[in-house]
Design brief:
Blueprint: H1 3-19, E1 23-25, E2 32-34, H2 36-55, E3 59-60, E4 66-68, H3 69-73, H4 76-82, E5 88-92, E6 95-103, H5 108-118, E7 127-136, E8 150-160, H6 163-183, E9 190-193, E10 205-212, E11 218-228, H7 230-235, E12 238-240, E13 246-248, E14 250-257, H8 259-268, E15 285-289, H9 297-312, E16 317-319, H10 326-335, E17 340-344, H11 346-350, E18 353-358, E19 364-368, H12 372-397, E20 399-400, H13 406-418, E21 425-430, H14 434-444, E22 447-448, E23 451-452, E24 471-476
Helix pairs in contact: 2-6
Bound molecules: zinc ion.
Protein backbone atom coordinates (compact mmCIF):
# COMPACT_ATOMS: atom_id res chain seq x y z
CA UNK A 1 0.00 0.00 0.00
CA UNK A 2 1.26 3.48 -0.80
CA UNK A 3 2.07 5.78 2.10
CA UNK A 4 -0.79 8.03 1.10
CA UNK A 5 -3.33 5.25 1.34
CA UNK A 6 -1.82 4.09 4.63
CA UNK A 7 -2.03 7.60 6.09
CA UNK A 8 -5.59 7.92 4.86
CA UNK A 9 -6.59 4.74 6.66
CA UNK A 10 -4.98 5.88 9.91
CA UNK A 11 -6.71 9.29 9.69
CA UNK A 12 -10.01 7.58 8.96
CA UNK A 13 -9.49 5.30 11.96
CA UNK A 14 -8.72 8.10 14.41
CA UNK A 15 -11.51 10.24 13.02
CA UNK A 16 -13.99 7.38 13.38
CA UNK A 17 -12.99 6.72 17.00
CA UNK A 18 -13.29 10.39 17.91
CA UNK A 19 -16.64 10.95 16.22
CA UNK A 20 -17.98 7.83 17.91
CA UNK A 21 -16.73 9.26 21.22
CA UNK A 22 -14.99 6.06 22.30
CA UNK A 23 -11.85 7.44 23.92
CA UNK A 24 -9.81 10.51 24.74
CA UNK A 25 -6.12 11.26 24.87
CA UNK A 26 -4.53 12.18 28.21
CA UNK A 27 -1.41 14.15 29.16
CA UNK A 28 0.35 10.80 29.72
CA UNK A 29 1.74 9.80 26.38
CA UNK A 30 0.38 6.53 25.09
CA UNK A 31 -2.21 6.23 27.86
CA UNK A 32 -5.81 6.79 26.79
CA UNK A 33 -9.09 7.20 28.65
CA UNK A 34 -11.86 4.83 27.64
CA UNK A 35 -15.10 6.80 27.43
CA UNK A 36 -18.34 4.97 28.31
CA UNK A 37 -19.16 3.70 24.80
CA UNK A 38 -15.57 2.51 24.27
CA UNK A 39 -15.50 0.85 27.66
CA UNK A 40 -18.87 -0.79 27.19
CA UNK A 41 -17.70 -2.45 23.95
CA UNK A 42 -14.89 -3.91 26.05
CA UNK A 43 -17.36 -5.02 28.73
CA UNK A 44 -19.36 -7.00 26.18
CA UNK A 45 -16.20 -8.63 24.79
CA UNK A 46 -15.12 -9.36 28.34
CA UNK A 47 -18.45 -10.92 29.28
CA UNK A 48 -18.38 -13.21 26.23
CA UNK A 49 -14.82 -14.34 27.02
CA UNK A 50 -15.35 -14.65 30.75
CA UNK A 51 -18.43 -16.84 30.34
CA UNK A 52 -16.45 -19.31 28.22
CA UNK A 53 -13.46 -19.26 30.58
CA UNK A 54 -15.74 -20.19 33.47
CA UNK A 55 -17.55 -22.86 31.45
CA UNK A 56 -14.17 -24.52 30.94
CA UNK A 57 -13.33 -24.52 34.65
CA UNK A 58 -11.28 -21.34 35.03
CA UNK A 59 -11.66 -18.85 37.87
CA UNK A 60 -10.65 -15.21 38.11
CA UNK A 61 -8.10 -13.87 40.58
CA UNK A 62 -6.06 -10.69 40.93
CA UNK A 63 -2.32 -10.12 41.27
CA UNK A 64 -0.24 -6.99 42.05
CA UNK A 65 0.63 -4.50 39.34
CA UNK A 66 4.19 -3.96 40.69
CA UNK A 67 6.78 -6.66 40.11
CA UNK A 68 10.24 -6.80 41.81
CA UNK A 69 13.14 -6.53 39.39
CA UNK A 70 14.72 -9.81 40.50
CA UNK A 71 11.64 -11.73 39.31
CA UNK A 72 12.44 -10.73 35.77
CA UNK A 73 16.04 -11.90 36.05
CA UNK A 74 14.91 -15.47 36.70
CA UNK A 75 13.78 -16.28 33.18
CA UNK A 76 16.41 -15.12 30.70
CA UNK A 77 14.28 -14.97 27.53
CA UNK A 78 11.49 -13.24 29.38
CA UNK A 79 13.65 -10.32 30.60
CA UNK A 80 15.31 -9.98 27.19
CA UNK A 81 11.91 -9.79 25.52
CA UNK A 82 10.32 -7.33 27.88
CA UNK A 83 13.06 -5.12 29.39
CA UNK A 84 13.11 -2.49 26.58
CA UNK A 85 9.49 -1.55 27.25
CA UNK A 86 9.20 -1.75 31.04
CA UNK A 87 8.34 1.33 33.08
CA UNK A 88 9.91 1.29 36.58
CA UNK A 89 8.94 2.62 39.99
CA UNK A 90 12.16 3.68 41.71
CA UNK A 91 10.98 5.76 44.64
CA UNK A 92 8.05 5.96 47.01
CA UNK A 93 7.19 8.18 49.97
CA UNK A 94 10.18 10.34 49.07
CA UNK A 95 12.71 7.52 49.36
CA UNK A 96 14.62 5.46 46.85
CA UNK A 97 13.38 1.89 46.81
CA UNK A 98 15.94 -0.80 47.60
CA UNK A 99 14.77 -2.70 44.57
CA UNK A 100 13.11 -1.24 41.49
CA UNK A 101 9.54 -2.35 40.79
CA UNK A 102 8.29 -2.79 37.24
CA UNK A 103 4.77 -1.99 36.15
CA UNK A 104 3.73 -5.43 34.92
CA UNK A 105 3.91 -6.09 31.18
CA UNK A 106 2.39 -9.54 31.91
CA UNK A 107 2.27 -11.58 35.11
CA UNK A 108 4.09 -14.88 34.51
CA UNK A 109 6.79 -13.97 37.03
CA UNK A 110 4.57 -12.85 39.92
CA UNK A 111 2.23 -15.75 39.33
CA UNK A 112 5.14 -18.20 38.99
CA UNK A 113 6.45 -16.99 42.35
CA UNK A 114 3.07 -17.59 44.00
CA UNK A 115 2.30 -20.89 42.28
CA UNK A 116 5.51 -22.34 43.74
CA UNK A 117 3.81 -21.88 47.13
CA UNK A 118 0.30 -22.84 46.10
CA UNK A 119 1.21 -26.05 44.32
CA UNK A 120 2.56 -28.89 46.46
CA UNK A 121 1.05 -32.12 45.24
CA UNK A 122 -0.75 -33.65 42.28
CA UNK A 123 -3.97 -32.96 44.22
CA UNK A 124 -3.41 -29.20 43.71
CA UNK A 125 -3.41 -29.57 39.92
CA UNK A 126 -4.49 -28.33 37.53
CA UNK A 127 -4.51 -24.66 38.55
CA UNK A 128 -6.79 -22.78 36.15
CA UNK A 129 -6.68 -19.03 36.86
CA UNK A 130 -7.40 -15.96 34.77
CA UNK A 131 -6.80 -12.30 35.59
CA UNK A 132 -8.56 -9.23 34.11
CA UNK A 133 -6.13 -6.35 34.48
CA UNK A 134 -4.19 -3.48 32.99
CA UNK A 135 -0.63 -3.93 31.75
CA UNK A 136 2.14 -1.61 30.58
CA UNK A 137 4.45 -1.83 27.59
CA UNK A 138 6.04 1.53 26.86
CA UNK A 139 5.45 2.33 23.20
CA UNK A 140 7.08 5.02 21.07
CA UNK A 141 4.51 4.95 18.28
CA UNK A 142 0.99 4.63 19.59
CA UNK A 143 -2.44 4.20 18.06
CA UNK A 144 -5.58 4.22 20.23
CA UNK A 145 -6.72 0.71 21.22
CA UNK A 146 -4.28 -0.96 18.83
CA UNK A 147 -1.00 0.02 20.47
CA UNK A 148 -0.92 1.96 23.73
CA UNK A 149 1.51 2.03 26.64
CA UNK A 150 -1.19 0.97 29.09
CA UNK A 151 -3.92 -1.40 27.97
CA UNK A 152 -6.56 -3.66 29.41
CA UNK A 153 -6.49 -7.39 28.91
CA UNK A 154 -7.01 -10.78 30.38
CA UNK A 155 -4.19 -13.20 31.04
CA UNK A 156 -4.84 -16.84 31.81
CA UNK A 157 -2.17 -18.75 33.75
CA UNK A 158 -2.54 -22.45 34.22
CA UNK A 159 -0.38 -25.20 35.69
CA UNK A 160 -0.65 -28.89 34.82
CA UNK A 161 0.86 -32.22 35.80
CA UNK A 162 2.13 -33.04 32.33
CA UNK A 163 2.88 -31.74 28.89
CA UNK A 164 -0.12 -33.31 27.17
CA UNK A 165 -2.65 -31.70 29.49
CA UNK A 166 -0.90 -28.31 29.25
CA UNK A 167 -0.86 -28.51 25.46
CA UNK A 168 -4.55 -29.40 25.38
CA UNK A 169 -5.25 -26.35 27.53
CA UNK A 170 -3.19 -24.14 25.18
CA UNK A 171 -5.23 -25.31 22.18
CA UNK A 172 -8.54 -25.15 24.01
CA UNK A 173 -8.05 -21.48 24.85
CA UNK A 174 -6.96 -20.63 21.31
CA UNK A 175 -10.17 -22.29 20.07
CA UNK A 176 -12.23 -20.23 22.52
CA UNK A 177 -10.58 -17.03 21.25
CA UNK A 178 -11.34 -17.97 17.66
CA UNK A 179 -14.95 -18.74 18.47
CA UNK A 180 -15.51 -15.46 20.35
CA UNK A 181 -13.71 -13.29 17.80
CA UNK A 182 -15.63 -14.86 14.90
CA UNK A 183 -19.07 -15.25 16.46
CA UNK A 184 -19.21 -12.25 18.79
CA UNK A 185 -16.93 -9.73 17.07
CA UNK A 186 -17.77 -11.00 13.55
CA UNK A 187 -14.06 -11.03 12.63
CA UNK A 188 -12.74 -14.09 10.77
CA UNK A 189 -9.31 -15.24 11.94
CA UNK A 190 -6.63 -17.66 10.83
CA UNK A 191 -5.45 -19.83 13.71
CA UNK A 192 -1.98 -21.24 13.69
CA UNK A 193 1.46 -21.40 15.25
CA UNK A 194 3.88 -18.50 15.49
CA UNK A 195 7.37 -18.93 14.07
CA UNK A 196 10.16 -19.10 16.72
CA UNK A 197 11.19 -15.45 16.14
CA UNK A 198 7.63 -14.28 16.88
CA UNK A 199 7.20 -16.40 20.01
CA UNK A 200 6.25 -14.92 23.35
CA UNK A 201 9.38 -14.25 25.41
CA UNK A 202 9.89 -17.44 27.42
CA UNK A 203 7.40 -19.69 25.60
CA UNK A 204 8.12 -23.12 24.12
CA UNK A 205 5.35 -22.67 21.54
CA UNK A 206 3.11 -19.71 20.78
CA UNK A 207 -0.16 -19.95 18.88
CA UNK A 208 -2.20 -17.05 17.58
CA UNK A 209 -5.32 -15.96 15.82
CA UNK A 210 -4.65 -13.33 13.13
CA UNK A 211 -7.21 -10.91 11.73
CA UNK A 212 -7.04 -8.83 8.54
CA UNK A 213 -7.94 -5.15 8.76
CA UNK A 214 -9.46 -3.18 5.86
CA UNK A 215 -6.04 -1.74 4.99
CA UNK A 216 -4.78 -5.31 4.59
CA UNK A 217 -2.60 -5.18 7.69
CA UNK A 218 -2.78 -7.87 10.34
CA UNK A 219 -3.70 -7.65 13.97
CA UNK A 220 -2.65 -10.48 16.24
CA UNK A 221 -6.00 -10.81 17.96
CA UNK A 222 -5.13 -13.36 20.64
CA UNK A 223 -2.26 -15.62 21.68
CA UNK A 224 -1.97 -18.84 23.65
CA UNK A 225 1.38 -20.13 24.86
CA UNK A 226 2.68 -23.49 25.97
CA UNK A 227 5.47 -22.55 28.39
CA UNK A 228 6.75 -26.05 29.06
CA UNK A 229 8.61 -26.24 32.38
CA UNK A 230 10.62 -23.03 31.74
CA UNK A 231 8.78 -20.85 34.26
CA UNK A 232 8.37 -23.82 36.64
CA UNK A 233 12.15 -24.24 36.65
CA UNK A 234 12.77 -20.51 37.02
CA UNK A 235 10.36 -20.23 39.97
CA UNK A 236 10.72 -23.73 41.37
CA UNK A 237 7.11 -24.83 40.88
CA UNK A 238 7.26 -28.51 41.77
CA UNK A 239 4.65 -31.01 42.83
CA UNK A 240 4.70 -34.41 44.44
CA UNK A 241 3.40 -37.08 42.06
CA UNK A 242 1.27 -40.07 43.10
CA UNK A 243 4.52 -42.04 43.01
CA UNK A 244 6.04 -39.62 45.53
CA UNK A 245 8.40 -38.00 43.05
CA UNK A 246 9.05 -34.26 42.70
CA UNK A 247 8.25 -32.99 39.21
CA UNK A 248 8.07 -29.58 37.60
CA UNK A 249 4.61 -28.48 36.47
CA UNK A 250 3.89 -27.56 32.85
CA UNK A 251 2.40 -24.09 32.50
CA UNK A 252 0.44 -22.15 29.91
CA UNK A 253 -0.56 -18.53 29.49
CA UNK A 254 -3.01 -16.92 27.08
CA UNK A 255 -4.23 -13.38 26.45
CA UNK A 256 -6.51 -11.06 24.57
CA UNK A 257 -6.66 -7.31 24.97
CA UNK A 258 -8.43 -4.06 24.17
CA UNK A 259 -6.72 -4.33 20.76
CA UNK A 260 -9.86 -6.25 19.90
CA UNK A 261 -11.80 -2.96 20.05
CA UNK A 262 -9.42 -1.45 17.49
CA UNK A 263 -9.81 -4.54 15.32
CA UNK A 264 -13.61 -4.28 15.34
CA UNK A 265 -13.36 -0.66 14.18
CA UNK A 266 -10.79 -1.43 11.48
CA UNK A 267 -12.64 -4.49 10.17
CA UNK A 268 -16.23 -3.23 10.10
CA UNK A 269 -16.13 0.58 9.94
CA UNK A 270 -17.08 2.48 6.77
CA UNK A 271 -17.16 5.99 5.30
CA UNK A 272 -20.02 6.93 7.63
CA UNK A 273 -18.10 5.89 10.72
CA UNK A 274 -18.29 3.04 13.16
CA UNK A 275 -20.17 -0.18 12.38
CA UNK A 276 -20.64 -2.41 15.41
CA UNK A 277 -21.61 -6.07 15.46
CA UNK A 278 -24.92 -6.23 17.39
CA UNK A 279 -23.54 -8.54 20.09
CA UNK A 280 -21.06 -5.95 21.36
CA UNK A 281 -22.87 -2.67 20.52
CA UNK A 282 -23.55 -0.53 23.63
CA UNK A 283 -26.77 0.57 21.89
CA UNK A 284 -28.20 -2.09 19.60
CA UNK A 285 -31.35 -0.28 18.49
CA UNK A 286 -32.23 3.40 18.37
CA UNK A 287 -35.83 4.55 17.95
CA UNK A 288 -36.27 7.90 16.20
CA UNK A 289 -39.59 9.72 15.76
CA UNK A 290 -39.68 11.64 12.46
CA UNK A 291 -41.88 14.20 10.69
CA UNK A 292 -44.08 16.51 12.81
CA UNK A 293 -44.13 13.91 15.58
CA UNK A 294 -44.56 16.30 18.47
CA UNK A 295 -48.06 17.18 17.27
CA UNK A 296 -48.96 13.50 17.20
CA UNK A 297 -48.50 11.89 20.64
CA UNK A 298 -49.44 8.46 19.26
CA UNK A 299 -46.00 8.31 17.60
CA UNK A 300 -43.98 8.43 20.81
CA UNK A 301 -46.56 6.19 22.50
CA UNK A 302 -45.97 3.52 19.84
CA UNK A 303 -42.22 3.92 20.12
CA UNK A 304 -42.49 3.61 23.91
CA UNK A 305 -44.31 0.30 23.43
CA UNK A 306 -41.57 -0.98 21.13
CA UNK A 307 -38.97 0.30 23.58
CA UNK A 308 -40.56 -1.62 26.48
CA UNK A 309 -40.95 -4.81 24.43
CA UNK A 310 -37.28 -4.70 23.34
CA UNK A 311 -36.12 -3.97 26.90
CA UNK A 312 -38.08 -6.99 28.10
CA UNK A 313 -36.01 -9.08 25.68
CA UNK A 314 -32.74 -7.61 27.05
CA UNK A 315 -32.08 -5.69 23.86
CA UNK A 316 -30.07 -2.53 24.45
CA UNK A 317 -32.39 0.14 23.05
CA UNK A 318 -32.60 3.94 23.18
CA UNK A 319 -35.37 6.32 22.25
CA UNK A 320 -34.05 9.56 20.79
CA UNK A 321 -36.86 12.06 21.43
CA UNK A 322 -34.51 15.04 21.73
CA UNK A 323 -35.43 18.14 19.73
CA UNK A 324 -32.63 17.82 17.18
CA UNK A 325 -33.57 17.18 13.56
CA UNK A 326 -34.00 13.58 12.32
CA UNK A 327 -31.13 14.09 9.86
CA UNK A 328 -28.81 15.13 12.69
CA UNK A 329 -29.88 12.12 14.76
CA UNK A 330 -29.46 9.65 11.89
CA UNK A 331 -25.95 10.91 11.33
CA UNK A 332 -25.00 10.82 15.00
CA UNK A 333 -26.24 7.25 15.57
CA UNK A 334 -24.55 6.12 12.38
CA UNK A 335 -21.24 7.61 13.55
CA UNK A 336 -21.67 5.59 16.73
CA UNK A 337 -22.27 2.42 14.76
CA UNK A 338 -25.67 1.56 16.25
CA UNK A 339 -26.75 -1.60 14.36
CA UNK A 340 -30.46 -0.91 13.83
CA UNK A 341 -32.41 2.35 13.53
CA UNK A 342 -36.20 2.41 13.68
CA UNK A 343 -38.08 5.40 12.27
CA UNK A 344 -41.72 6.24 12.89
CA UNK A 345 -43.56 9.31 11.52
CA UNK A 346 -47.18 10.31 10.89
CA UNK A 347 -47.27 8.74 7.42
CA UNK A 348 -45.85 5.46 8.73
CA UNK A 349 -48.41 5.48 11.51
CA UNK A 350 -51.24 5.92 8.95
CA UNK A 351 -49.89 2.87 7.14
CA UNK A 352 -49.41 0.95 10.38
CA UNK A 353 -45.67 0.49 9.77
CA UNK A 354 -42.19 1.45 10.93
CA UNK A 355 -39.01 1.77 8.88
CA UNK A 356 -35.97 -0.32 9.81
CA UNK A 357 -32.48 0.64 8.72
CA UNK A 358 -29.54 -1.66 9.38
CA UNK A 359 -26.30 0.27 9.82
CA UNK A 360 -24.47 -1.67 7.08
CA UNK A 361 -27.24 -1.69 4.46
CA UNK A 362 -28.38 1.03 2.07
CA UNK A 363 -32.12 0.43 2.01
CA UNK A 364 -34.73 0.97 4.67
CA UNK A 365 -37.26 -1.82 5.16
CA UNK A 366 -40.94 -1.12 5.92
CA UNK A 367 -42.25 -3.46 8.62
CA UNK A 368 -45.77 -3.89 10.02
CA UNK A 369 -46.07 -2.27 13.45
CA UNK A 370 -47.25 -5.46 15.15
CA UNK A 371 -44.26 -7.34 13.72
CA UNK A 372 -41.72 -4.64 14.55
CA UNK A 373 -40.19 -6.26 17.63
CA UNK A 374 -39.75 -9.67 15.99
CA UNK A 375 -38.30 -8.13 12.86
CA UNK A 376 -35.84 -5.98 14.86
CA UNK A 377 -34.66 -9.06 16.73
CA UNK A 378 -34.21 -10.92 13.44
CA UNK A 379 -32.35 -8.01 11.90
CA UNK A 380 -29.87 -7.96 14.81
CA UNK A 381 -29.15 -11.63 14.17
CA UNK A 382 -28.87 -11.37 10.41
CA UNK A 383 -26.64 -8.31 10.66
CA UNK A 384 -24.31 -10.17 13.02
CA UNK A 385 -23.95 -12.98 10.45
CA UNK A 386 -23.80 -10.59 7.50
CA UNK A 387 -20.86 -8.67 9.02
CA UNK A 388 -18.89 -11.90 9.47
CA UNK A 389 -19.67 -12.94 5.89
CA UNK A 390 -18.63 -9.54 4.53
CA UNK A 391 -15.39 -9.66 6.49
CA UNK A 392 -14.75 -13.21 5.26
CA UNK A 393 -15.30 -12.15 1.65
CA UNK A 394 -12.93 -9.21 2.10
CA UNK A 395 -10.28 -11.45 3.62
CA UNK A 396 -10.69 -14.05 0.87
CA UNK A 397 -10.21 -11.36 -1.77
CA UNK A 398 -6.95 -10.22 -0.15
CA UNK A 399 -5.47 -13.58 0.89
CA UNK A 400 -3.15 -14.61 -1.93
CA UNK A 401 -1.68 -18.02 -2.62
CA UNK A 402 0.04 -17.37 -5.97
CA UNK A 403 3.31 -16.03 -4.55
CA UNK A 404 6.23 -18.48 -4.43
CA UNK A 405 9.37 -16.32 -4.52
CA UNK A 406 10.59 -13.06 -3.03
CA UNK A 407 10.66 -11.52 -6.51
CA UNK A 408 7.00 -12.45 -6.99
CA UNK A 409 6.15 -10.94 -3.60
CA UNK A 410 7.89 -7.69 -4.56
CA UNK A 411 6.04 -7.70 -7.87
CA UNK A 412 2.75 -8.35 -6.07
CA UNK A 413 3.40 -5.36 -3.78
CA UNK A 414 4.43 -3.15 -6.71
CA UNK A 415 1.29 -4.16 -8.64
CA UNK A 416 -0.96 -3.34 -5.73
CA UNK A 417 0.67 0.07 -5.38
CA UNK A 418 0.22 0.75 -9.06
CA UNK A 419 -3.43 -0.31 -9.00
CA UNK A 420 -4.06 1.45 -5.68
CA UNK A 421 -5.26 -1.76 -4.05
CA UNK A 422 -4.00 -3.32 -0.85
CA UNK A 423 -1.39 -6.09 -0.95
CA UNK A 424 -3.16 -8.10 1.76
CA UNK A 425 -1.46 -11.31 2.88
CA UNK A 426 0.33 -14.02 0.99
CA UNK A 427 0.65 -17.68 1.87
CA UNK A 428 4.20 -18.71 1.09
CA UNK A 429 6.52 -21.61 1.76
CA UNK A 430 9.21 -21.32 4.43
CA UNK A 431 12.16 -23.61 5.13
CA UNK A 432 12.22 -22.85 8.87
CA UNK A 433 15.35 -20.69 8.81
CA UNK A 434 15.13 -17.43 10.84
CA UNK A 435 17.37 -15.67 8.31
CA UNK A 436 14.94 -16.34 5.45
CA UNK A 437 12.11 -14.88 7.52
CA UNK A 438 14.21 -11.83 8.43
CA UNK A 439 15.26 -11.25 4.83
CA UNK A 440 11.66 -11.22 3.58
CA UNK A 441 10.86 -8.65 6.27
CA UNK A 442 13.85 -6.43 5.39
CA UNK A 443 12.93 -6.44 1.74
CA UNK A 444 9.16 -6.08 1.95
CA UNK A 445 8.09 -5.29 5.57
CA UNK A 446 6.03 -8.47 5.34
CA UNK A 447 6.39 -10.47 8.55
CA UNK A 448 5.24 -13.98 9.31
CA UNK A 449 1.77 -13.91 10.83
CA UNK A 450 1.39 -17.59 11.62
CA UNK A 451 1.69 -21.10 10.26
CA UNK A 452 -1.99 -21.84 9.72
CA UNK A 453 -3.39 -25.13 11.00
CA UNK A 454 -5.49 -25.35 7.89
CA UNK A 455 -3.56 -23.74 5.02
CA UNK A 456 -5.62 -23.06 1.86
CA UNK A 457 -2.76 -24.30 -0.36
CA UNK A 458 0.34 -26.49 -0.28
CA UNK A 459 3.75 -24.86 -0.63
CA UNK A 460 6.78 -26.75 -1.94
CA UNK A 461 9.64 -24.26 -1.66
CA UNK A 462 10.87 -21.50 0.67
CA UNK A 463 9.94 -18.02 -0.52
CA UNK A 464 13.46 -16.76 0.20
CA UNK A 465 16.03 -19.52 -0.41
CA UNK A 466 14.04 -21.83 -2.69
CA UNK A 467 14.91 -24.89 -0.61
CA UNK A 468 12.26 -27.36 0.48
CA UNK A 469 9.49 -25.68 2.49
CA UNK A 470 8.72 -27.01 5.96
CA UNK A 471 5.61 -24.92 6.35
CA UNK A 472 3.08 -22.80 4.50
CA UNK A 473 3.11 -19.46 6.33
CA UNK A 474 0.96 -16.31 6.17
CA UNK A 475 3.07 -13.24 5.46
CA UNK A 476 1.69 -9.73 5.76
CA UNK A 477 2.28 -6.29 7.21
CA UNK A 478 1.12 -6.00 10.77
CA UNK A 479 0.15 -3.54 13.51
ZN1 LIG B 1 14.57 -20.53 3.33
Amino acid sequence: MSNKRENEFTSWYIDTIQKADLMDYTPVRGCIAFKPDGFEIWEHIKDAMDKRFKETGHRNAYFPMLIPENFFQKEKDHIEGFSPELPWVTEAAGEQLEERLALRPTSETMIGHLYSDWIKSYRDLPVLINQWANVFRWEKRTLPFIRTSEFLWQEGHTAHADEQEAREETMQMLAIYKEVVENVLAIPVYDGEKTPSERFAGAVDTFSIEAMMQDGKAVQAGTSHYLGTKFAEAFDIKYLTKENKHEFVHTTSWGTSTRLIGSVIMVHGDEQGLVLPPKIAPTQVVLVPVGPWKKNPAIVEKLDEIFAALKAKDIRVRLDDSDRSPGFKFNEWELKGVPVRVELGPRDLDQDQVLLKARDEEEKIAVQLDEAVTRIEEELETMQTRLLEKAKAFRAKHSHTHVDTLEQLKQHIADSEENDTIPGWVLAGWCGDDDCEAHVQEETKFTTRNIPFDPPAEKETCINCGKEAKHAVWFGRAY
